[in-house]
TrEMBL record:
It comes from marine sediment metagenome. InterPro entries: WD40/YVTN_repeat-like_dom_sf (IPR015943). Gene3D superfamilies: YVTN repeat-like/Quinoprotein amine dehydrogenase. This is Sortilin N-terminal domain-containing protein.
Amino acid sequence: GGLWKTTNNGVTWESVFDNQATSTIGDVAVALSNPEIVWVGTGEANNRQSSSWGNGVYKSNDGGKTWIHMGLEDTHHVGRIVLDPYNPEVAYVAAVGHLWGPNQQRGLFKTTDGGESWENVLYVDENTGCTD
């Protein structure tokens, strides 16, 4: 589990997400406009009995050296993160939510301030999540 990084075309790999509260990853997005900006959505998005849940979204501004927890703690399972190709402060997060019960933090979330605040722009109900 976790997140691994290579800087030599896969000859060697370095784990860059070991010190976080969770190691289960649903999606990773790297900003096209600045590859030092990396977003990680935690929690496997596949619906099966052995799926592990996460605790929201993380962001690195230094290529994975350090991470900041950006919220959405109760999403549990992130299916997709999409970044604006010109502005990495704009991100969309598709949240599945709890796999085995209802919860409010489901749907498609959007931030325009780099994850400081989130708006749920596509919410159906507490039983319907969003994924890719």
